[in-house]
Amino acid sequence: MKYFALTLNIMRKRWLFHVILVMELAALLILTNVMTATVNSKTMLLEPYRALMNEKGAVVQVENLMIMEECTNEEIRPFLKTYPDLKGIISFLEKRLAGQVKIHYTEHINFFQPVGPHSVMFHDKGETPYYYLLDRDILDKMQLPLSCGHWPCGERNAAGEAEIVISGGTDAHLNDVYDTPAGKIRVVGILTDNTYRPIGSNIDRSDMTAEVDRDSIFNYILPFDSQINLGGPFVIASKDAFSQNQEGYEIIPDTIWFVTYGNDISEEDFKANTDYLNTVGTVQYGETLATLAEESQRKINDIYYRMMPMIITAVIMVLLGFIGSAAISAVRQIRTFGIFYLCGCRKKDCIFILAAETAIILLFSLLAAGIGLFILQQNHFDYLIGMTFGVMNVVISLLLVLLLFVLSMILPLGIIKTSSPILTLKERV
């Protein structure tokens, strides 16, 4: 502690110089953490789907009107007599297509009551949350950050309640129970703000003419579509917790399907499946889903590639400035160290004083960076690009600080070891 107290007294004489250094380092830490948090966000969205994309398959988009008006597949027409029976079509296709077929899709609940006890207050107005029902294996891998609570179990709990996670910004509280046409629903988790904006999430999938990046899973997966990014309350739950259509509500499959065939399917059967699916909807991605995963990961890596030159340039500039300032500080304090030496200090003590100065600057830089990132979050900057802070942010920040500390001490160590404080003191007396 004596070194820190003495160092603070020395730093007080050149406070503006040290404030500028702190701001430079804080800016570097903020930039690095923004990049890391952005990558965290996109990786978090991809993770639940990695196992699914280890199989061969396709992504199919089906629109209700398109099926009714343009579908020429005579085997599908019976499902379209009155209203498109998407679940019937899905069940039929799982038997009709070649391979170990499984169709993965998100379901939605459509409540017939426009406003009811299942509505919540959101941004000062009552709205019915948009429900996303996920496959259990997808839900179990969800890593979206919760402000409180936990992720729901698969089926209803012992009290017969469906467990849900609800978006932040509503008047719903943890363990609130709502009576709905679908039965009792308990809030077991509340999400943080929408800090998980996916790549390309501004695309309106209902617009069939829109340019869609078909090599990115972020344009297919739910519950991360444009509706959520536009705001509004939403709920995530397991399919297993809700029965099929009953009075007061209906369950509707989403129109984006992941169709997997297993890895043993032949190329001929794979092509035949693709051709058949094109008579039902539009095969958005007909290559292996593993390729889709690789392309999606490449888009995540592109964030690094775009930001890394800027960060490397900033690191070099800040590092050179920081090392230079540490060396100048060591030279300027040689005379002071000479006085300390006469008072019984050793060179080791002088080195500790310089190390304490560097440590104090870095600690204040970390504090300033933390405040800056907090302000960005409070102003919803994280929502604009999608940022999720996690352990990786802490690890990278600490490694960067450690690197700066070690490199900034090299020149001062050489200066002190090769200088004679007593001779310097005599020369300047």
Q: Overall mean pLDDT score? A: 74
* Strand coverage percent: 15-25%
- Describe the oligomeric state of these chains in a short phrase: single chain
β-strand number: 14
Order of helices and strands: HHEHHEEEEEHEEEEHEEEHEHHHHHH
End-to-end Cα distance: 31 Å
Profile the largest sheet: 6 strands, mixed
Q: Please work out how many helical segments DSSP would assign.
A: 13
Shape: elongated
Structural class: alpha+beta
* Portion in helices: 40-55%
The poorly predicted ranges are 200-212
Q: Any idea what the radius of gyration is?
A: 30 Å
Our count of domains comes out at: 3
Characterise the protein shown here.
The structure is a single chain. This protein is an alpha+beta fold. 48% of the residues lie in helices and 15% in strands. It has 13 helices and 14 strands. Strand 4 and strand 5 (125-127) form a beta hairpin.
Which labels suit this protein?
429 residues, alpha+beta, six-stranded mixed sheet, four-stranded antiparallel sheet, 13 helices, 15% strand, elongated
